[in-house]
Amino acid sequence: DAKERGRDNCVIYSAEMEHQVNTQLIIQNDLRDAIERHELELYYQPIVDEHGILSGAEALLRWRHPQYGFISPADFIPVAERFGLIDNLTRWVLKDVCEFVQQNAERELPKISINISARQFNDPKFVESLLVQIKGRQLTPRAFELELTEHLFLTDLSLIKARFTELQQAGFTIAIDDFGTGYSSLSYLQHLPLSRLKIDAAFVRNIGKGEKGKTLVKAIIEMAHAMKLDVVAEGVETEEQHTYLKSQQCDWFQGYMWSKPLPAAEFARLLPRAGEVRQLVSNIKPVQNEL
Ligand code: C2E
Ligand code: MG
Ligand code: MG
Ligand code: MG
Protein backbone atom coordinates (compact mmCIF):
# COMPACT_ATOMS: atom_id res chain seq x y z
CA ASP A 1 0.00 0.00 0.00
CA ALA A 2 0.87 3.66 -0.14
CA LYS A 3 2.44 3.72 3.28
CA GLU A 4 4.74 0.82 2.37
CA ARG A 5 5.74 2.47 -0.86
CA GLY A 6 6.35 5.71 0.95
CA ARG A 7 8.70 3.99 3.31
CA ASP A 8 10.49 2.27 0.44
CA ASN A 9 10.97 5.55 -1.35
CA CYS A 10 12.37 7.01 1.80
CA VAL A 11 14.85 4.15 2.12
CA ILE A 12 15.98 4.52 -1.49
CA TYR A 13 16.34 8.23 -1.07
CA SER A 14 18.52 8.01 2.02
CA ALA A 15 20.62 5.24 0.48
CA GLU A 16 21.29 7.56 -2.41
CA MET A 17 22.17 10.38 -0.06
CA GLU A 18 24.50 8.13 1.83
CA HIS A 19 26.10 7.14 -1.43
CA GLN A 20 26.61 10.82 -2.26
CA VAL A 21 28.13 11.56 1.10
CA ASN A 22 30.43 8.56 0.72
CA THR A 23 31.47 9.69 -2.72
CA GLN A 24 32.30 13.12 -1.37
CA LEU A 25 34.34 11.62 1.46
CA ILE A 26 36.26 9.38 -0.92
CA ILE A 27 36.98 12.29 -3.20
CA GLN A 28 38.01 14.51 -0.35
CA ASN A 29 40.36 11.91 1.15
CA ASP A 30 41.90 10.58 -2.01
CA LEU A 31 42.20 13.70 -4.11
CA ARG A 32 45.00 14.99 -1.92
CA ASP A 33 47.19 12.08 -2.98
CA ALA A 34 45.92 11.72 -6.54
CA ILE A 35 48.68 13.90 -7.94
CA GLU A 36 51.52 12.01 -6.25
CA ARG A 37 50.00 8.71 -7.26
CA HIS A 38 49.85 9.79 -10.90
CA GLU A 39 46.14 9.19 -11.08
CA LEU A 40 45.42 12.43 -12.89
CA GLU A 41 45.67 12.84 -16.61
CA LEU A 42 45.05 15.80 -18.87
CA TYR A 43 42.97 15.37 -21.99
CA TYR A 44 42.69 17.87 -24.83
CA GLN A 45 39.54 18.63 -26.76
CA PRO A 46 40.01 20.33 -30.13
CA ILE A 47 38.36 23.67 -30.86
CA VAL A 48 37.85 24.21 -34.58
CA ASP A 49 37.08 27.11 -36.91
CA GLU A 50 34.17 27.28 -39.37
CA HIS A 51 36.03 24.99 -41.77
CA GLY A 52 36.70 22.35 -39.13
CA ILE A 53 40.38 23.24 -38.90
CA LEU A 54 42.05 22.82 -35.55
CA SER A 55 42.43 26.24 -33.93
CA GLY A 56 42.66 25.60 -30.24
CA ALA A 57 42.11 23.04 -27.51
CA GLU A 58 40.67 22.89 -24.04
CA ALA A 59 42.64 21.03 -21.37
CA LEU A 60 40.31 18.83 -19.29
CA LEU A 61 41.25 16.91 -16.17
CA ARG A 62 40.65 13.20 -15.82
CA TRP A 63 40.99 11.21 -12.59
CA ARG A 64 41.33 7.47 -12.71
CA HIS A 65 40.78 6.21 -9.19
CA PRO A 66 42.52 2.86 -8.55
CA GLN A 67 39.44 1.40 -6.85
CA TYR A 68 36.49 3.40 -8.10
CA GLY A 69 37.53 3.99 -11.68
CA PHE A 70 36.91 7.16 -13.58
CA ILE A 71 35.65 10.08 -11.52
CA SER A 72 34.27 13.04 -13.47
CA PRO A 73 35.78 16.49 -12.99
CA ALA A 74 32.20 17.69 -12.59
CA ASP A 75 32.27 15.69 -9.33
CA PHE A 76 35.76 16.29 -7.99
CA ILE A 77 36.43 19.91 -9.01
CA PRO A 78 33.70 21.28 -6.71
CA VAL A 79 35.14 19.18 -3.85
CA ALA A 80 38.63 20.45 -4.61
CA GLU A 81 37.29 23.99 -4.48
CA ARG A 82 35.56 23.44 -1.19
CA PHE A 83 38.50 21.80 0.53
CA GLY A 84 41.28 24.06 -0.62
CA LEU A 85 42.81 21.66 -3.11
CA ILE A 86 42.07 23.61 -6.26
CA ASP A 87 45.31 25.61 -6.24
CA ASN A 88 47.32 22.40 -6.25
CA LEU A 89 45.23 20.96 -9.04
CA THR A 90 45.54 24.06 -11.18
CA ARG A 91 49.29 24.11 -10.63
CA TRP A 92 49.48 20.50 -11.75
CA VAL A 93 47.32 21.22 -14.81
CA LEU A 94 49.46 24.16 -15.83
CA LYS A 95 52.66 22.19 -15.30
CA ASP A 96 51.31 19.38 -17.45
CA VAL A 97 50.21 21.75 -20.22
CA CYS A 98 53.60 23.49 -20.14
CA GLU A 99 55.34 20.12 -20.47
CA PHE A 100 53.06 19.21 -23.34
CA VAL A 101 53.88 22.46 -25.10
CA GLN A 102 57.61 21.91 -24.60
CA GLN A 103 57.47 18.29 -25.75
CA ASN A 104 55.72 19.36 -28.93
CA ALA A 105 57.80 22.41 -29.68
CA GLU A 106 58.46 21.21 -33.25
CA ARG A 107 54.75 21.24 -33.97
CA GLU A 108 52.39 24.12 -34.55
CA LEU A 109 50.59 24.53 -31.27
CA PRO A 110 47.21 26.21 -31.06
CA LYS A 111 46.25 28.22 -28.03
CA ILE A 112 45.47 25.94 -25.08
CA SER A 113 42.53 26.84 -22.87
CA ILE A 114 42.74 26.13 -19.16
CA ASN A 115 39.84 26.13 -16.71
CA ILE A 116 40.31 28.34 -13.68
CA SER A 117 38.05 28.25 -10.64
CA ALA A 118 36.38 31.41 -9.49
CA ARG A 119 37.81 30.88 -6.00
CA GLN A 120 41.34 31.37 -7.21
CA PHE A 121 40.55 34.98 -7.97
CA ASN A 122 40.50 35.86 -4.32
CA ASP A 123 44.17 35.00 -4.03
CA PRO A 124 46.19 38.17 -4.61
CA LYS A 125 49.19 36.05 -5.67
CA PHE A 126 47.18 34.11 -8.24
CA VAL A 127 48.40 35.87 -11.39
CA GLU A 128 51.98 35.96 -10.15
CA SER A 129 51.95 32.22 -9.45
CA LEU A 130 50.75 31.49 -13.00
CA LEU A 131 53.49 33.68 -14.41
CA VAL A 132 56.21 32.07 -12.29
CA GLN A 133 55.28 28.67 -13.68
CA ILE A 134 55.01 29.77 -17.30
CA LYS A 135 58.04 32.02 -17.45
CA GLY A 136 60.06 29.53 -15.43
CA ARG A 137 59.67 27.27 -18.46
CA GLN A 138 60.47 30.00 -20.97
CA LEU A 139 56.92 29.96 -22.26
CA THR A 140 54.65 32.91 -22.90
CA PRO A 141 51.18 33.58 -21.45
CA ARG A 142 50.11 34.21 -25.06
CA ALA A 143 50.07 30.45 -25.55
CA PHE A 144 47.18 30.17 -23.09
CA GLU A 145 43.58 31.15 -22.72
CA LEU A 146 42.01 31.11 -19.27
CA GLU A 147 38.39 29.97 -18.99
CA LEU A 148 36.39 31.47 -16.16
CA THR A 149 32.78 30.82 -15.32
CA GLU A 150 30.18 33.35 -14.44
CA HIS A 151 30.28 32.19 -10.81
CA LEU A 152 33.15 34.60 -10.67
CA PHE A 153 30.79 37.51 -10.70
CA LEU A 154 29.53 36.67 -7.26
CA THR A 155 32.67 38.26 -5.88
CA ASP A 156 33.55 41.92 -5.85
CA LEU A 157 33.52 43.43 -9.34
CA SER A 158 36.35 45.85 -8.74
CA LEU A 159 38.57 42.97 -7.61
CA ILE A 160 37.65 40.97 -10.69
CA LYS A 161 38.33 43.91 -12.94
CA ALA A 162 41.76 44.41 -11.42
CA ARG A 163 42.57 40.70 -11.78
CA PHE A 164 41.38 40.56 -15.39
CA THR A 165 43.47 43.59 -16.26
CA GLU A 166 46.50 42.00 -14.61
CA LEU A 167 45.97 38.83 -16.65
CA GLN A 168 45.44 40.69 -19.88
CA GLN A 169 48.51 42.83 -19.39
CA ALA A 170 50.54 39.70 -18.72
CA GLY A 171 49.43 38.40 -22.14
CA PHE A 172 46.72 35.88 -21.31
CA THR A 173 43.46 35.89 -23.20
CA ILE A 174 40.30 35.33 -21.21
CA ALA A 175 37.10 33.49 -22.06
CA ILE A 176 33.85 33.31 -20.13
CA ASP A 177 32.90 29.63 -19.86
CA ASP A 178 29.38 28.16 -19.68
CA PHE A 179 27.98 31.51 -20.71
CA GLY A 180 24.30 31.95 -20.02
CA THR A 181 24.08 29.64 -17.03
CA GLY A 182 25.35 32.08 -14.43
CA TYR A 183 24.90 35.55 -13.16
CA SER A 184 26.62 37.87 -15.53
CA SER A 185 24.91 40.78 -17.11
CA LEU A 186 25.89 42.87 -20.06
CA SER A 187 27.05 45.66 -17.82
CA TYR A 188 29.48 43.33 -16.04
CA LEU A 189 31.04 41.98 -19.19
CA GLN A 190 31.31 45.35 -20.86
CA HIS A 191 33.98 46.54 -18.49
CA LEU A 192 36.23 43.51 -18.64
CA PRO A 193 39.05 42.73 -21.08
CA LEU A 194 37.60 39.52 -22.53
CA SER A 195 38.26 37.74 -25.81
CA ARG A 196 35.60 35.09 -26.08
CA LEU A 197 32.30 33.86 -24.74
CA LYS A 198 31.69 30.12 -24.67
CA ILE A 199 27.98 29.42 -25.14
CA ASP A 200 27.01 26.67 -22.75
CA ALA A 201 26.18 23.29 -24.24
CA ALA A 202 22.66 23.51 -22.77
CA PHE A 203 21.82 26.29 -25.26
CA VAL A 204 23.44 24.44 -28.14
CA ARG A 205 21.36 21.36 -27.31
CA ASN A 206 18.17 23.40 -27.60
CA ILE A 207 18.90 24.46 -31.17
CA GLY A 208 17.16 21.43 -32.59
CA LYS A 209 14.21 21.77 -30.23
CA GLY A 210 12.09 24.56 -31.62
CA GLU A 211 12.33 28.25 -32.41
CA LYS A 212 12.88 29.45 -28.85
CA GLY A 213 16.16 27.60 -28.54
CA LYS A 214 17.40 29.10 -31.77
CA THR A 215 16.33 32.61 -30.82
CA LEU A 216 18.28 32.47 -27.58
CA VAL A 217 21.47 31.31 -29.29
CA LYS A 218 21.05 33.97 -31.95
CA ALA A 219 20.64 36.65 -29.28
CA ILE A 220 23.74 35.52 -27.38
CA ILE A 221 25.89 35.55 -30.52
CA GLU A 222 24.62 38.96 -31.59
CA MET A 223 25.21 40.38 -28.15
CA ALA A 224 28.73 38.98 -28.00
CA HIS A 225 29.58 40.33 -31.43
CA ALA A 226 28.17 43.73 -30.53
CA MET A 227 30.66 43.71 -27.64
CA LYS A 228 33.45 42.67 -30.03
CA LEU A 229 33.77 39.23 -28.47
CA ASP A 230 34.25 36.00 -30.38
CA VAL A 231 31.87 33.15 -29.68
CA VAL A 232 32.76 29.52 -29.06
CA ALA A 233 29.90 27.02 -29.15
CA GLU A 234 30.35 24.17 -26.64
CA GLY A 235 28.92 20.68 -26.93
CA VAL A 236 28.16 20.75 -30.66
CA GLU A 237 27.04 17.25 -31.58
CA THR A 238 24.79 17.46 -34.63
CA GLU A 239 24.94 18.82 -38.15
CA GLU A 240 21.75 20.77 -37.44
CA GLN A 241 23.37 22.59 -34.51
CA HIS A 242 26.50 23.24 -36.53
CA THR A 243 24.60 24.60 -39.53
CA TYR A 244 22.51 26.93 -37.42
CA LEU A 245 25.51 28.21 -35.47
CA LYS A 246 27.37 28.88 -38.70
CA SER A 247 24.36 30.72 -40.13
CA GLN A 248 24.60 33.01 -37.09
CA GLN A 249 28.33 33.63 -37.63
CA CYS A 250 29.47 31.70 -34.58
CA ASP A 251 33.26 31.90 -34.66
CA TRP A 252 34.54 28.68 -33.08
CA PHE A 253 33.23 25.21 -32.35
CA GLN A 254 33.89 22.47 -29.82
CA GLY A 255 32.08 19.19 -29.41
CA TYR A 256 31.79 15.50 -30.09
CA MET A 257 30.89 16.30 -33.70
CA TRP A 258 34.61 16.84 -34.24
CA SER A 259 36.23 15.11 -31.33
CA LYS A 260 35.89 14.03 -27.76
CA PRO A 261 38.64 15.13 -25.38
CA LEU A 262 41.75 13.16 -26.39
CA PRO A 263 44.72 11.82 -24.44
CA ALA A 264 47.74 14.09 -24.95
CA ALA A 265 49.55 11.72 -27.33
CA GLU A 266 46.50 11.37 -29.54
CA PHE A 267 45.93 15.11 -29.57
CA ALA A 268 49.59 15.73 -30.43
CA ARG A 269 49.19 13.66 -33.59
CA LEU A 270 46.71 16.24 -34.88
CA LEU A 271 49.22 19.05 -34.65
CA PRO A 272 50.96 19.85 -37.90
CA ARG A 273 54.75 20.14 -37.99
CA ALA A 274 56.18 23.33 -39.45
CA GLY A 275 55.21 23.58 -43.13
CA GLU A 276 52.64 20.79 -42.95
CA VAL A 277 49.07 21.40 -44.07
CA ARG A 278 46.60 21.85 -41.25
CA GLN A 279 44.21 18.98 -40.83
CA LEU A 280 40.47 19.04 -40.74
CA VAL A 281 39.46 17.72 -37.35
CA SER A 282 36.43 16.05 -38.93
CA ASN A 283 38.85 13.40 -40.20
CA ILE A 284 39.36 12.04 -36.70
CA LYS A 285 37.78 8.82 -35.72
CA PRO A 286 35.85 9.26 -32.50
CA VAL A 287 37.59 7.73 -29.49
CA GLN A 288 35.91 4.54 -28.43
CA ASN A 289 36.84 4.39 -24.76
CA GLU A 290 34.24 6.62 -23.18
CA LEU A 291 35.67 9.05 -20.68
P1 C2E B 1 33.71 22.86 -19.13
O1 C2E B 1 34.89 23.70 -18.87
O2 C2E B 1 32.47 23.56 -19.58
O3 C2E B 1 34.17 21.79 -20.20
C1 C2E B 1 33.38 21.29 -21.25
C2 C2E B 1 32.77 19.97 -20.88
O4 C2E B 1 31.89 19.54 -21.92
C3 C2E B 1 33.81 18.84 -20.74
O5 C2E B 1 33.34 17.97 -19.73
C4 C2E B 1 33.73 18.17 -22.12
O6 C2E B 1 34.20 16.84 -22.10
C5 C2E B 1 32.26 18.25 -22.38
N1 C2E B 1 31.92 18.18 -23.79
C6 C2E B 1 32.57 18.73 -24.84
N2 C2E B 1 31.94 18.51 -26.00
C7 C2E B 1 30.84 17.79 -25.70
C8 C2E B 1 29.75 17.25 -26.50
O7 C2E B 1 29.69 17.39 -27.71
N3 C2E B 1 28.78 16.56 -25.81
C9 C2E B 1 28.81 16.39 -24.45
N4 C2E B 1 27.83 15.71 -23.88
N5 C2E B 1 29.81 16.90 -23.68
C10 C2E B 1 30.80 17.59 -24.30
P2 C2E B 1 34.31 17.36 -18.63
O8 C2E B 1 35.65 17.11 -19.24
O9 C2E B 1 33.59 16.25 -17.97
O10 C2E B 1 34.50 18.55 -17.60
C11 C2E B 1 33.43 19.02 -16.83
C12 C2E B 1 33.77 20.32 -16.16
O11 C2E B 1 34.77 20.12 -15.16
C13 C2E B 1 34.34 21.38 -17.10
O12 C2E B 1 33.32 22.00 -17.83
C14 C2E B 1 35.04 22.28 -16.10
O13 C2E B 1 34.12 23.15 -15.51
C15 C2E B 1 35.53 21.30 -15.05
N6 C2E B 1 36.95 21.01 -15.29
C16 C2E B 1 37.53 20.07 -16.08
N7 C2E B 1 38.89 20.15 -16.02
C17 C2E B 1 39.17 21.18 -15.17
C18 C2E B 1 40.40 21.78 -14.68
O14 C2E B 1 41.52 21.41 -15.05
N8 C2E B 1 40.26 22.81 -13.77
C19 C2E B 1 39.04 23.28 -13.37
N9 C2E B 1 39.01 24.30 -12.49
N10 C2E B 1 37.89 22.75 -13.82
C20 C2E B 1 37.94 21.72 -14.71
MG1 MG C 1 35.86 25.07 -19.87
MG1 MG D 1 31.98 25.10 -20.54
MG1 MG E 1 30.51 23.17 -17.90
UniProtKB/TrEMBL annotation:
* Superkingdom of the organism of origin: Bacteria
Task: Give the UniProt keywords, A-Z.
Answer: Membrane, Transmembrane, Transmembrane helix
Q: Where is the EAL domain?
A: 24-275
Name the chain's protein.
EAL domain-containing protein
Upper lineage:
Bacteria, Pseudomonadati, Pseudomonadota, Gammaproteobacteria, Alteromonadales
Covered residues, full protein: 538 to 828 of 828
